[in-house]
UniProtKB/TrEMBL annotation:
Pfam families: Ribonuc_L-PSP. This is TdcF. It comes from Halomonas huangheensis. GO terms for molecular function: deaminase activity. Belongs to the RutC family. One of its GO terms (cellular component) is cytosol. It comes from the Bacteria.
Length: 130
């Protein structure tokens, strides 16, 4: 089994800092997408939890698509919210994205190292790539 790294050269974080991890790693049909925040070009995009959640997911799915995976391949999502009051609004975005095929999930409330409301990561699987 080989391991393929996407974006191993490192992305760009806040203030233009180089990030020392891969955007995603694929092995044995599994794709792990690193946590994504509502950022564009290394800067957090302001907005409420709904806008920030949508952008965090868009960033995850852009990486997944680059690797050949889609929303239908998502088997698990990890979510970090910075405030428990965001839970219901986040769930609306989650339901909108996954509709009748929701993946497994964990959601916690924690501080983030970036000044935003949400971070999301994905685990995807495709048997044809195992």
């Amino acid at each position: 089994m080989s391991i393929k790294r996407y974006g191993a050269e490192g992305g760009v974080g806040t203030g233009g800092q180089r990030l020392p991890f891969s955007r995603a790693v694929e092995a044995g049909g599994w794709l792990k997408v690193s946590g994504q925040t509502p950022m564009t070009n290394g800067e957090v995009v302001e907005g409420g939890i709904i806008e920030q959640s949508r952008l965090a997911f868009e960033n995850c799915f852009a990486i997944a698509r680059e690797a050949g995976y889609g929303v239908e391949d998502v088997v698990h999502v990890t979510v970090v919210l910075t405030d428990a009051r965001y839970f219901q609004s986040f769930n609306k975005v989650f339901a909108e994205i996954f509709q009748d095929n929701p993946p497994a999930r964990i959601c916690s409330v924690q501080d983030l190292v970036v000044d935003c409301k949400v971070e999301v990561d994905l685990t995807c699987y495709r048997a044809d790539r195992a």
